[in-house]
Write the structure tokens for this entry.
Amino acid sequence: MPRWEPDGVERLQAAAFELFDEQGFERTTVAEIAQRAGLTQRTFFNHFADKREVLFGLSSELQQEIVREIATCADTLPPLDAVVRALQATADKMFEERRDAVTRRHRIIGANPELRERELSKRAALTDAIAAALHARGLDPETALLTASLSMLVEQTAIQRWTQPAESPPLRELLSDALYSLRMTVK
Amino acid sequence: MPRWEPDGVERLQAAAFELFDEQGFERTTVAEIAQRAGLTQRTFFNHFADKREVLFGLSSELQQEIVREIATCADTLPPLDAVVRALQATADKMFEERRDAVTRRHRIIGANPELRERELSKRAALTDAIAAALHARGLDPETALLTASLSMLVEQTAIQRWTQPAESPPLRELLSDALYSLRMTVK
């Protein structure tokens, strides 16, 4: 049991991801997650409303972080580049050191249609939040939504590669590569 | 009651869309739909598994049509242009004369989170099918998925405008416009 892990949230998350990955999301109980983490169910419910929240609990923090980065980005950048730069800053802060966990999460969600629907829905909400942040900076609503959607496509393409076992570059670089691929594809 | 409508499926669909739009999807029963269409519930269930199917029943036909159009498209076109051309052909066949119904459907789905999740999921499946069709024509998997995702973004942008009351150009034209906007945004 990972008793060396000081933070309850992190321990519960690591335990949950392991179990979801080993035996499937549906078949894993909160009791098993707490046990694997060496914590009580009460501690689990202090941090998460249910076991699905372990997978999706970070999404509002992620969204706030990205929106904040967009708001502070230099005005001189073209909008899509500004958003990709915000995604890169967020990748450094929230993803880079958690590649194993993110990869596991990616695999767990991919294996379960209900979780995939949930993920798509979260991604749509994030797209809308990015579009709103761009609109707040003066972009017309249609271009803002298009730019936000394109940035999410860049993010997906980069994450897809970053979560493959064989890939090793930092997510920041893969985001640049994905933006380049996007430009080549659209040309 | 629209007795002038010869086709049971179309009548049921029109009745369902009216009712979903008037009183909400959740609160509408199959009995009410059948009654509004002047048909029996048995006829309803001959055509649809449940009331949600009235909204999503066409998606497999749409997918087949788009994939077929991609397969028959000239080899000389760049992939994204080929897919947008396929979407335009499909728009002419399956959408252009049904603008009121499509607009109503769009509004119904937008008003209900569960239906929105379902729509996102159908769209993801369509994206994968388009990517597979492009891969079958020799595109590498990553570029195929990127191109498919971009084409769905073009489709969404165009449909968004086409289903606004004030917009009148044919969907085919709005698809061209959206592809142009996409190119300008990515530039």
Observations:
- Chain B touches chain A through 28 residues (CB under 8 Å).
- The first helix of chain B runs from residue 8 to 23.
- Chain B is about 75% helix and 0% strand.
